Each structure stands twice: as structure tokens, then as C-alpha cells.
């Protein structure tokens, strides 16, 4: 069955149509300067072919996510672990779901890595799921650059290899590449050369006009045609659309990009004095957080102890029993750890401070021995409160798993477990270092590596550079969290 996709009207007044089966076999290249209508053309092609073929859009700016509401595309956030992206790509091919791979918000080198990973996942699917798929890559010069770019060399190499596979070897796997670029001169030649269908829009640079004319078999003197094209007009050639170059005007679309083009709007009517205030006066949302209070000096601590000592201390009585006594001890340890430097003190000094505070609080009875204090200290360093340390069986299981670790590492494991239980972001290196009793973030990372080698945790990094920690024994997983505080 032959499927004809209507993309607009030719200059002669007839309809411009794509033979969809031929397009899948021969691929398509679109060129045009910014504002020439490339995205509009791609959207028209996607909308018209959506009922007939599975689609995947590699979308660096998030322009095509609006296809989801009208045509049922699934939007995939590219900021995920590489192994997750590979698994998702395999499921996309297996279940024949049309998707938009949204790269918005990632830096260029991370966009290249994410696109390469996802395209490789599509390419490496098993033979029995090689169904036809239209793979549309907008701003293809980002993913298949002709020369070195600001992105790191490894990202460029991976992305270029994936794009080359798509255009050179994808046909046998059912993958039909449709690539759009602002400039042919910036696109790798071995990627562009594999397309047999062309739509050339408005172009101004001589080198790009000359290459476009060569691809369309036009004489060099005819290259000026591309400079005079209107927005939304393209010169088309290829076995899927026509055997001779002919101008095509792209038809209307049902959906629109989220941002749209720039629209002129009146400036706000603001008095000069008020405008100056808006610029030079700090707003409430810009107020800086208050700095933490400095740690008390040794003299201040001794003075506080003297002031708290009663003139005639009565014989100690057991004011707290059972759960009340345990709660009072937990309160003392929590107050200790609230001081900024407490997390970096040796356990022996903290234990002495703990005994003194227990006497001040008049907690009678046998004090905690050092091993019991270490256990409570690990919970306090992890920030574990009553809601976690209560009767919940899940948290009891986490405590049981942590018992297999050395005592000084249990606080770190419980800190990660607390975040995973609450589905909160993974703790940063600084938070892990403090729970371990050090200021060295390098030691914190080595500690995580040690725990990972022994199977207590598994870490992964998403495309934004955020760390995700999994606890295999518990089946818990944290949300992505930045390893370095203040990182973008």
C-alpha cells in the first residue's frame, strides 16, 4: 500500500506529497537558516505521518513536546542514567510507541551524550523488533558537527558515531533518518551524504548556497534562488517527492511549539523612579540566608556548665524511664550534633561531651557505653528522627543491613537510606563527609566507592550530572542529587 503524505503546495498549484515508504527507504535532509521554517516543516511531516508510522523526535529545545497531547507521543526526559535510556529505547522499539526525546535544559556535551545513548539503544534493538520508525533529528549540526566544537571530544565522537549509524546503517534496522540543520557547512559530510531527499530553505551564506545547489543538481548561478525564498518555502528534490527541483510551500500545522516566535508587546508603564528601584534595590526573593552561628569557644562552654550546675545538687533520681529516658538521650545527642563542628570531632571527645550533658540534664541510671553511643551517634549523623527510627519495619531492615558495615560507616549508609526511603535527592559529597566525620569530599567519594564494591549501594549519574544511589538489599532508590553543593 502506498501512503502519500501531504506537506503543502508546489509552485504550480498542485499538492506536494511524500511517498512515505520511499521516504523511509531513502531518508531526508532539510536545510535552512534560523527562521526559515524548518521546525514548521518537520512538525507538518510528523503530524501527517503520525497515523502511519512510529516516530522518534530528537528535540534539543523542547519544541516538539506539544505533539504528546494531540498525537499521543510520549515525552522522554533525557536527564536520566545511560542504562535507563538504553532500556527505554529498547522498550520504545519493542512496543512501537512514538516518542519525543526532550534534551531541553542539558548542556551541549550532555545533549550529545544523551542523544548518542538513545540512538544507540534504538539501533541495537533485537532483529525481531526492527519495525519502520521515522527518526527526526532537529538541529542535526549539534549532534554531527563537521569540526570540533565547544563540547568535549568524547561526547562529539559518540554523537557523530550514532548519527552516522542512523544515516548509513539504520535503513536495514527500520530506522529512517530525517535530519534538519541550519548550515550544511557545519554538518558532517558522511551524515549529509546518505540522504537522497532534500528540502532546501532560505540560506544566505555563499558556501551553504553552493552546497545546496550541488545537492540539488542546480547550476551555481541558480544558487541565488535560496537567498530569495520566503519563510516556509523550500526547494524540494528526491525520489520520495519529485525527480526535479521544485519550490514547495509548507502547509499549516495543528500543534505549535511552546514558545513560538517573538511577538512585539508594549513595554510596561513604569515610572523612572520605580524602574530604578526595581534594578538597584534587592528584592525579597534575593535575600541571603542567615549564616550559621559560630561554634561556642571552650570558655563559653565552661561558663555554661558552671551556670547550669545547681548550688546544692540533690541525689540523682531516675527521672526518665524506658522510652522517656531513651528519648532524653536522643535529644542530648541531637543537640550535640546541631553544633557546626560536632560532626568533625573524634568520637572519644563527643562521648565525654555526651556524658557531661547527660549529667546536666539529670539523666540518671547507667550511662550509655561507648558501642551503644556509637550506634546512636550514627543515627544522629544521618539525621534520623523518630519517624524513621520508630516501629516501621522498613527502617528496621535498613538498620539491620547497616550493622554489617564498620561503625564509622553506618551513619553514611543510614543517611543515604533515609534519603532513599523519602525518595529525596541523594546526599551531596559534603553531607556524606560530615556524616563520616571528615571535611574531605574526596574521602566521602572513596567511602561510597568502597560501599559500592561490597554491594551495599549502587550509584549512577544522570545526564545533568546528578547522582542517584540505589540500595539493592532494600530495593530503595534516591532521587537525583548534585554531588557538589552549588553545582549548576
TrEMBL record:
<dbReference type="InterPro" id="IPR002789">
    <property type="entry name" value="HerA_central"/>
</dbReference>
<feature type="domain" description="Helicase HerA central">
    <location>
        <begin position="10"/>
        <end position="68"/>
    </location>
</feature>
<keyword id="KW-0547">Nucleotide-binding</keyword>
<dbReference type="InterPro" id="IPR014588">
    <property type="entry name" value="ATPase_Atu1862_pred"/>
</dbReference>
<dbReference type="Pfam" id="PF01935">
    <property type="entry name" value="DUF87"/>
</dbReference>
<keyword id="KW-0067">ATP-binding</keyword>
<dbReference type="InterPro" id="IPR008571">
    <property type="entry name" value="HerA-like"/>
</dbReference>
<dbReference type="GO" id="GO:0005524">
    <property type="term" value="F:ATP binding"/>
</dbReference>
<protein>
    <submittedName>
        <fullName>ATP-binding protein</fullName>
    </submittedName>
</protein>
<dbReference type="InterPro" id="IPR027417">
    <property type="entry name" value="P-loop_NTPase"/>
</dbReference>
Amino acid at each position: 500500500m502506498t501512503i502519500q503524505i501531504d506537506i503543502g503546495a508546489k509552485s504550480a498549484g498542485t499538492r506536494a506529497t511524500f511517498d512515505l515508504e520511499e521516504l523511509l527507504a531513502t531518508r531526508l535532509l532539510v536545510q535552512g537558516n534560523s527562521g526559515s521554517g524548518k521546525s514548521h516543516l518537520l512538525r507538518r511531516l510528523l503530524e501527517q505521518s503520525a497515523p502511519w508510522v512510529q516516530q522518534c523526535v530528537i528535540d534539543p529545545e523542547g519544541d516538539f513536546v506539544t505533539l504528546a497531547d494531540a498525537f499521543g507521543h510520549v515525552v522522554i526526559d533525557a536527564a536520566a542514567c545511560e542504562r535507563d535510556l538504553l532500556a527505554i529505547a529498547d522498550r520504545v522499539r519493542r512496543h512501537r510507541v512514538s516518542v519525543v526525546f526532550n534534551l531541553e535544559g542539558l548542556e551541549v556535551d550532555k545533549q550529545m551524550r544523551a542523544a548518542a545513548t538513545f540512538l544507540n539503544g534504538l539501533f541495537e534493538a533485537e532483529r525481531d523488533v526492527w519495525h519502520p520508525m521515522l527518526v527526526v533529528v532537529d538541529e542535526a549540526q549539534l549532534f554531527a558537527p563537521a569540526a570540533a566544537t565547544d563540547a568535549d571530544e568524547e561526547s562529539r565522537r559518540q554523537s557523530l558515531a550514532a548519527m552516522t549509524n542512523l544515516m548509513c546503517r539504520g535503513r536495514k534496522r527500520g530506522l529512517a533518518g530525517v535530519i534538519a540543520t541550519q548550515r550544511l557547512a557545519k554538518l558532517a559530510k558522511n551524515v549529509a551524504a546518505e540522504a537522497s531527499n532534500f528540502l532546501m530553505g532560505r540560506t544566505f551564506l555563499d558556501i551553504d548556497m553552493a552546497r545546496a545547489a550541488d545537492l540539488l543538481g542546480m547550476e551555481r548561478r541558480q544558487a541565488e534562488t535560496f537567498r530569495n525564498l520566503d519563510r516556509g518555502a523550500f526547494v524540494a528534490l528526491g525520489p520520495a517527492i519529485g525527480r526535479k527541483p521544485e519550490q514547495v510551500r509548507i502547509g499549516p500545522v495543528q500543534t505549535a511549539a511552546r514558545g513560538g516566535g517573538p511577538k512585539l508587546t508594549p513595554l510596561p508603564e513604569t515610572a523612572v523612579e520605580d524602574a530604578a528601584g526595581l534594578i538597584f534595590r534587592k528584592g525579597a526573593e534575593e535575600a541571603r540566608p542567615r549564616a550559621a552561628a559560630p561554634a561556642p569557644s571552650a570558655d563559653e562552654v565552661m561558663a555554661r556548665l558552671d551556670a547550669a550546675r545547681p548550688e546544692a545538687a540533690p541525689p540523682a533520681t531516675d527521672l526518665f524511664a524506658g522510652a522517656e529516658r531513651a528519648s532524653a538521650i536522643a535529644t542530648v545527642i541531637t543537640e550535640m550534633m546541631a553544633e557546626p563542628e560536632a560532626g568533625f570531632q573524634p568520637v572519644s571527645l563527643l562521648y565525654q561531651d555526651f556524658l557531661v550533658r547527660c549529667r546536666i540534664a539529670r539523666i540518671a541510671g547507667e550511662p550509655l557505653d561507648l558501642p551503644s553511643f556509637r550506634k546512636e551517634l550514627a543515627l544522629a549523623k544521618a539525621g534520623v528522627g523518630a519517624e524513621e527510627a520508630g516501629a516501621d519495619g522498613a527502617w528496621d531492615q535498613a538498620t539491620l543491613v547497616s550493622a554489617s558495615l564498620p561503625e564509622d560507616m553506618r551513619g553514611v549508609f543510614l543517611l543515604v537510606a533515609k534519603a532513599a526511603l523519602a525518595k529525596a535527592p541523594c546526599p551531596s559529597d559534603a553531607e556524606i563527609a560530615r556524616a563520616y566525620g571528615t571535611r574531605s569530599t574526596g574521602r566521602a567519594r572513596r567511602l561510597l566507592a568502597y560501599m559500592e564494591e561490597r554491594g551495599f549501594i549502587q550509584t549512577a549519574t544522570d545526564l545533568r550530572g546528578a547522582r542517584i544511589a540505589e540500595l539493592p538489599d532494600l530495593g530503595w532508590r534516591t532521587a537525583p542529587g548534585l554531588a557538589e553543593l552549588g553545582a549548576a
